[in-house]
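The methods section describes the discrete structure representation at length, but only in general terms. An entry of this sort, consisting of the sequence and the corresponding backbone structure tokens, reads as follows.
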Amino acid sequence: MSDKKVDSPNDTAGMGRRRFINTAALAGLTVGVAACNDKPAAAPAAAPASAPASEPAAHAGASVHLKPGELDTYYGLWSGGHTGDMRVLGLPSGRELLRIPCFVPDALVGWGVTNESKAVMGTKADGSLRYTVADTHHTHASYKDGNYDGRYAWINDKINSRIARIRLDYFVCDKITQLPNVQGFHGIFPDKRDPVDPAINYTTRVFCGGEFAIPLPNNVGTDDGSKYRSLFSCVDAETMEVRWQVLIDGNCDLVATSFDGKLAATNQYNVEMGVHYEDMMSAERDACLFFNIARIEEAVKAGKFKTIGTSKVPVVDGTHEANKDPKTALTAYVSVPKNPHGVNASPDQKYFICAGKLSPTVTTIELAKVLDWFDGKMEKLDDAIVAEVEVGLGPLHTAFDGRGNAYTTLFLDSQVVK
């Protein structure tokens, strides 16, 4: 597993049947990975899609087909969607090597049939499985010194608000936790080090952003939209118990963490806390919501929390109203264009890149300036935004090649922008 791109001698010539570069939009996007600048560079001329491939390019795809006895360079981890499992693919070949059952029974390996697997999945009082359906979306692996360490990977079940852990020494699911007072969560991401103790240079927390607001506690039906709220959760990477939760304004989408462990963030839509469509779209912008991890854990330790319903998990207040003073704030709402989707950390450890989804832009936020705001050194939080670059319709996720380039997927334009 690696964030790094695997170079091939044939990369620049073409990619055979997998050739997407010829149809990708190659805009000169100077996002804040090398130098953050809101003045876009000149875009190189794109090759016509109908241009015939050269002879080397026509056979370049063969480089991804391994011969008998050859091994892939990397393992890639994918979510299986409604199959409720994790997929292991070899790269660069793209071969599916393994399916790891997690949330849904798998008769092939006895998952959900054996006593051991049923204990992991969870059962009702009569011994039957608590759930037999799932919807996995995102999977992320543990870190040490800012890179993957091969210990664990985590995957979410959006339908039933569960998170599963996979041991990467055996490629087996060994723990599943259900988040209390959460109705579906989309984004997850592990931290990369402790925010306070420099000796803890590895993952100890996994963050989960609750997407769908529900009444809290969710035991009485109500049409009062003000009663519907979302929670941001922190799960212990080792015990898989929920450490704490944050009551927030708005709905969470995807999640990211800083390399220094000090910040976690989730892109947010519906900052209006609306119930009807026209209410949800009334504001000009939504937010990337930052969490000051050390302050949250200090508040929990000091007893400045409440619990909800039968859950014993500490819940701190991360709403706008309770966090107006930067020097005591637990959260910070940086404005971004409407309905953002992915938020990704640049490998130089300086920026978060927020994909606009309903806006043709990506927003670059400088993390040092967010920390300055928390320290009372910066008056206006949105001054942490150092660029909003137009990339195309429907930006979703951004990846990096370690050479100062960012690659953003566009789901409406069906392109990748560099």
Q: What stands out?
A: DSSP finds five helices and 24 strands in the chain. The helical segments are 55-58, 115-121, 277-280, 293-301, 367-374. The radius of gyration is 22 Å. The longest strand covers residues 147-157.
